[in-house]
């Protein structure tokens, strides 16, 4: 069965966006020259079979993604409003009003045996964690202190133990992968 992977970039002090929703300092690594960063970024397209994101990430990404969004597989967008799917090859964005569990279930059906990646924003990531849906956590930690912004983690309903799977350090970044223990 496929797994649900939370995949997010954060600052050392845990912010998913900076003040005024600034992402530039966090996401420099995506366009970096480092071979290791490029390899980790290539996993974004190669490994999942579907993605889940929130409406805020969808809206903020439309302009910078342009005519070719970086999602080669179906994307399920949490929304409070019904709307028709948006096709922007290679991506198809399907809007889901039934909450995080429904979005992940639909993404799993679309992904087949491949993983579902929850890619933001922070609120959607917290919802997936709180619902116990996340089996793997991939944090890309930018070597910056933002001091303010939107935190990735807030209050969660219960603690979870993490098992380190991989750590890769590149100039300006530390890429961490953890398995989430299924605590009783």
Which descriptors would you attach to this protein?
single chain, 184 residues, alpha/beta, Dihydrofolate Reductase, subunit A, nine-stranded mixed sheet, 5 helices, 33% strand, globular
Brief summary of the model shown:
The protein contains 5 helices and 11 strands, in the order E-E-H-H-E-H-E-E-E-H-E-H-E-E-E-E. It is of the alpha/beta class and 184 residues long. Strands 5-6-4-3-7-1-8-11-10 form a 9-stranded mixed beta sheet, sandwiched between helices. The chain has a two-stranded antiparallel ribbon with strand order 2-9.
**Rg (C-alpha, Å):** 16 Å
Number of helices: 5
What is the average per-residue confidence, as pLDDT, rounded to a whole number?
A: 91
CATH architecture: 3-Layer(aba) Sandwich
Shape: globular
- Can you write the helix and strand succession as a string? EEHHEHEEEHEHEEEE
CATH topology: Dihydrofolate Reductase, subunit A
Any idea how many domains?
1
Based on DSSP secondary structure assignment, what is the total number of beta strands? 11
Fraction of helical residues: 25-40%
Unreliable stretches covering 5 or more consecutive residues? none
Provide the β-strand percentage band. 25-35%
End-to-end separation: 21 Å
Q: Order of strands in the sheet with the most strands?
A: 5-6-4-3-7-1-8-11-10
Sheet with the most strands?
9 strands, mixed
Kindly provide the name of the CATH class.
Alpha Beta
Tell me the CATH superfamily. Answer: Dihydrofolate Reductase, subunit A
Q: How does the helix and strand content classify structurally?
A: alpha/beta
